[in-house]
Structures are given as C-alpha cells and as structure tokens.
Specification:
mainly beta; four-stranded antiparallel β-sheet; 1 helix; 17 strands; about 50% strand
Length: about 160
Amino acid sequence: IAVDNLGRIIVTIGYQVFVLSPSGNVKLKFGDKGQGPQQFSSSLRVTVNSSNQIIISDWHNHNLKIFDPAGRHLFRCGSRGSGPGQLESPCCVITDSEDNIMVADYGNHRVPLFSRDGTFIRHVLTREEHGLKHPWGLMLTHEGQLVVSYSHAIMFFLIDETQ
C-alpha cells in the first residue's frame, strides 16, 4: 500500500493495481495476469515517487514496472537472473529522496539501486559484503539509514551515497 502526493491510495490485490481516492473510491484500476507491460503475477508490492509514478515489484515476473499517475506503463527494469540489474523474486520496493529505486531482491540476497529512469546503479547491500539473506522489507529513516527485514531479523545500515 502506498499514498502519493495527491493523497491517492495505491494498493495491489492479486495481479491488479487499484488507485483509490482518500475516501476509498476506486479511481483507477489496471493490470491483468501475465508477463506483458500492463500484466503482473499475483505477488506484488507498490511504492510511489515524488512525481506520483507508481512503481510495482513483481515477484514471479522478476522485474519492476513503472507507471505514470494515470496507470500508463512507462518502462520496466530488471529481468530474471543474478547479474547486475537482474532480479530473482523482488519483493519490497522503495524510493529515496532522489527518486532512485531500491528493491529487496529476495532470491539474490541483495538490495539493488536503480535510477529513477530504471538504470541499474549498484548493489547497496549484498550477502557477500553485508551477510544479507533473503531481504523481505525495506524502509529508509529520515536520518538516511536503510532498515532491512530478513530471515527473522531486522538490521540497520548506513548507506554511503557517494558510491
């Protein structure tokens, strides 16, 4: 569940995305089952950026899909795999103050960082360097710490923005 700067509530149910008014009325609904630009699997997470773009992590399709506030598909980032910019069962997705996108890459045991246009930047956290195993949830504190829930634990990491 996410709330954009317009006060709209964005939720995912099954393989669909619903945009609700603050009072709960459905303003927009999009998505269908499948692998195309407007299609999803049944395990989705959502966030929004400062431009009210809707960012969906799609667990079974192994990617992120970005939509404008009207629900029009803009682009996709990530594909199934373990290389740079590839994802294996992405779950929680968030944005930072620059609208960069971070995703809990559950299957690859890492947190990749993508630019607001979907370009892979780097891996912020990895299993090898940080002992991360199956990250599930992400949150950025106001102080710039990345909070990660995984494997029955919660850890705090200070992110180096200069890398």
